[in-house]
Amino acid sequence: MTSRPLNVLFLCTHNSARSILAEALLNDLGRGRFRAYSAGSSPRPNQQPHPLALAVLREAGIATDGLRSKSWDEFAGPDAPEMDLIITVCDNAAGEVCPVWPGHPATAHWGYADPSAGDEPGEVKHEAFRRTMQLMKRRLEMLTQLPPEKLARALLQDSARALAGS
C-alpha cells in the first residue's frame, strides 16, 4: 500500500442511501488509511441524500457534512481522484456498464437491500436504514482491519470480493 490513503468509490443507482452510508462509514472507520467517495449511475435531478440515511449516521455519531448525491461521471474524468477500489452496493448498479475508470481500479460487489424501498411506516423504514448501516459497518470494519499486504494493488480485488460473502 502506498503512503496515500486508499481511495474507495461506492456506487449505487441514485446515490442517496446505501452508497452515502458506505462513504460516511468508511471515512469514519478508515482513520486516514482510506478515503471514501460515493456516486450514482443515474441520480435524479436535484437528488439529495435520503434524510433517514443522514439521520442514522448522525445517531451513530458519524459526520454527515459534505455528503451529497452526485453522478459517477465526476469520478471518470482526468481530474478526478484515482480510485483504488470501486464497490457497487446495489444490484442495479452492479449490472450496469460502468465508465472506464482512470487507473483501472479493483472492483467488487457488496449487495444490500434498498432500505428506502417500500411504503412501510416511518419507524420500520428507520430501522431498515439502521440495519443496513450495521451490515455495512461490519463489512467495512473487516476491510479496514486487513493487513497492508492484502490491500496491495495486486491483491485488493480478491480481498474486497472475499468480503462480499461476509
UniProtKB/TrEMBL annotation:
Pfam families: LMWPc. SMART domains: LMWPc. GO terms for biological process: response to arsenic-containing substance. CDD domains: LMWP_ArsC. It is an enzyme of class 1 (oxidoreductase). Its EC number is 1.20.4.1. InterPro entries: Ptyr_pPase, Ptyr_pPase_sf. GO terms for molecular function: arsenate reductase (glutaredoxin) activity. Keywords: Arsenical resistance, Oxidoreductase. Residues 6-146 form the Phosphotyrosine protein phosphatase I domain. PANTHER family: ARSENATE REDUCTASE. This is Glutaredoxin arsenate reductase. The gene is arsC.
